[in-house]
Specification:
Layout: E1 4-5, H1 15-20, H2 31-47, E2 54-60, H3 64-73, E3 78-83, H4 86-97, E4 101-106, H5 115-124, E5 129-133, E6 135-136, E7 141-142, H6 145-155, E8 160-164, H7 176-179, E9 183-187, E10 198-204, H8 205-212, H9 223-230, H10 241-257, H11 259-280, E11 282-283, E12 294-298, H12 305-314, E13 317-318, E14 320-321, E15 330-334, H13 341-355
Parallel strand pairs: 1-13, 3-4, 3-5, 5-8, 8-9
Antiparallel strand pairs: 2-10, 6-7, 9-10, 11-12, 12-15, 14-15
Helix pairs in contact: 2-10, 3-4, 5-6, 11-13
This protein binds pyridoxal-5'-phosphate (PLP).
Length: 360
């Protein structure tokens, strides 16, 4: 039986979107492709209310590719990587693996990255790039990205801020021009509710200008080349056209739903899940910084999540254990993409029944 995915990515993909991928292929240097690709980037521009100085692009390659793009194309001398979980740690490690000098702002798991802590680091070191994970999927913590970005724009205008919004873009409220970040990226298997394999990047002209001054940008990670091809509504290398068909469809659906309603839907799912979690367990993130797309719950009752998933599987659903070091301590419910609060309610009722929580 197919298990519907309530994990924090990949999330459930509707049949209508899956079927888009069965369309006949087209050549990526044909006019037909530019019409498709340019249409999608126009839709991204509309949906994310992009101002003229912020350009969308789509990479064939998941969100992790953007760690490499930032390392290779953006970091010039030295980066500050803000780490508060497994994915932000991976970003820091990627910068270092690409040979870029990187300092780490290390924040305890479960806590958010705060503007004051970033400011203190920036006061004491010379950095040209800062990386922050907006929504740490491993801990369910959402960091106050607007406060961080505004502090950087105000006090360190030469610094480029790159934001991993892999599990929050197109779910949480993230309008790049309102935030004031330079690069924000997301994988398609999260809030975009598509299969994995693509990533969406929204990039400021400032960041593209920076890239022009950075040597050894590589090939697949060369942001300058990517945006040269954007001018022709093409990608430098062969893209996954089938996934682009699916993304085109998803953008139509997102635009029809509207940005505000997509956000409200995610917020409602988060509120419902987190109220339930607080009643029976406790939330892992520090209060006030809970993600709207993934709830990371402290398993204070030591319930067996593996056994739960076996029973949920019989009913056609799957939730997630904790990530990495938090595997046994927490469990996670992903409420991103096309899910609705009614569906979440339905699955939580099943969990109540399996774990006999109603009577607690
Ligand atoms: C916050 C965050 N960043 C980065 C990644 C890596 O993305 P991908 O697996 O699409 O490369 C993930 C994956 O779950 C994530 O949740």
């Amino acid at each position: 039986m197919h298990k519907k995915l309530l994990i924090p990515g990949p999330t459930e993909v509707s049949r209508e979107v899956l079927e888009e991928q069965t369309r006949y292929l087209i050549g990526h240097r044909e006019k037909e492709f530019s019409t498709l690709y340019g249409g999608i980037t126009d839709k991204l521009t509309n949906f994310f209310q992009l101002t003229a100085d912020i350009k969308p692009t789509i990479t064939t390659g998941s969100g992790t590719l953007w760690f490499d793009i930032v390392a290779r194309s953006v970091v010039k001398q030295k980066a500050l990587a803000c780490v508060n979980g497994a994915f932000s740690k991976r970003a820091a490690q990627t910068l270092q693996a690409c040979g870029k000098e990187t300092d780490v702002l290390d924040v305890e798991m479960g806590k958010a990255i705060k503007a004051d802590a970033v400011a203190e680091k920036l006061e004491n070191g010379k950095y040209d790039t800062v990386t922050v994970c907006h929504n740490e999927t491993s801990t369910g913590v959402c960091s106050p990205i607007k406060e961080i970005a505004q502090m950087i724009r105000r006090d360190y205008p030469e610094v480029i801020l790159a934001v991993d919004a892999v599990s929050s873009l197109a779910g949480d409220k993230l309008i790049p021009s309102e935030i004031g970040c330079d690069i924000i990226f997301a994988s398609t298997q999260k809030c975009f509710a598509l299969p994995p394999g693509l990533a969406v990047g929204l990039v400021s002209d400032r960041a593209i200008e920076r890239a022009k001054t950075v040597p050894n940008r590589g090939a697949y990670t060369d942001m300058v080349e990517m945006f040269e091809f954007e001018k022709k509504h093409q990608t430098p290398f062969t893209p996954n056209v089938s996934l682009l068909y699916a993304l085109d469809k998803r953008m139509d659906l997102l635009l029809a739903e509207t940005y505000e309603r997509v956000y409200q839907r995610h917020l409602n799912m988060a509120k419902y899940t987190q109220e339930w979690a607080k009643k029976h367990f406790e939330m892992f993130p520090e209060p006030g910084y809970e993600s709207v797309t993934v709830s990371c719950i402290n398993n204070t009752q030591y319930k067996n999540v593996k056994a739960l998933n076996q029973q949920l599987a019989d009913r056609g659903y799957l939730i997630s254990a904790g990530y990495g070091a938090l595997a046994d301590k927490t469990f996670r419910v992903g409420h991103m993409g096309e899910w609705t609060v009614e569906c979440i309610q339905h699955v939580i009722n099943m969990i109540d029944e399996i774990w006999d929580l109603k009577s607690n």
